[in-house]
Amino acid sequence: MYRSDAHTGKSEHSELPISQLVPGDIIKLSAGDMIPADLRLLSAKDLFISQAALDR
């Protein structure tokens, strides 16, 4: 995940627990990853989503 610092303009890549996600965080997903929260998809290449978890 990339977290952007509005004061310095710096971005850093780090792994955070799902509980620490906040609106505005940018999340990078790889093949096999579970989507950790509601999100807006900015870009994708060869995207496939299993909707099984959405049907609960």
Query: What's the β-strand tally?
Result: 2
Strand content: 5-15%
Mean pLDDT across all residues, rounded? 72
Coarse structural class? little secondary structure
Termini, distance in Å?
26 Å
Topology summary:
Blueprint: E1 2-4, E2 11-13
Antiparallel strand pairs: 1-2
Protein name: Magnesium-transporting ATPase, P-type 1
EC number: 3.6.3.2
Pfam family, one: E1-E2_ATPase
Keywords:
56 residues; two-stranded antiparallel sheet; little secondary structure; 0% helix; 11% strand
Structure, explained:
Keywords: Hydrolase. InterPro entries: ATPase_P-typ_transduc_dom_A_sf, ATPase_P-type_domA. Its EC number is 3.6.3.2. The chain is largely without helices or strands and about 55 residues long. It has one domain. The chain contains no helices and two strands. The chain has strands at about 1-5, 10-15. A hairpin with a 6-residue loop joins strand 1 and strand 2. The chain starts with a strand and ends in a 43-residue tail after the last strand.
Could you provide a short overview of the structure?
This protein is mostly loops and 56 residues long. It is built from no helices and two strands. Pfam families: E1-E2_ATPase.
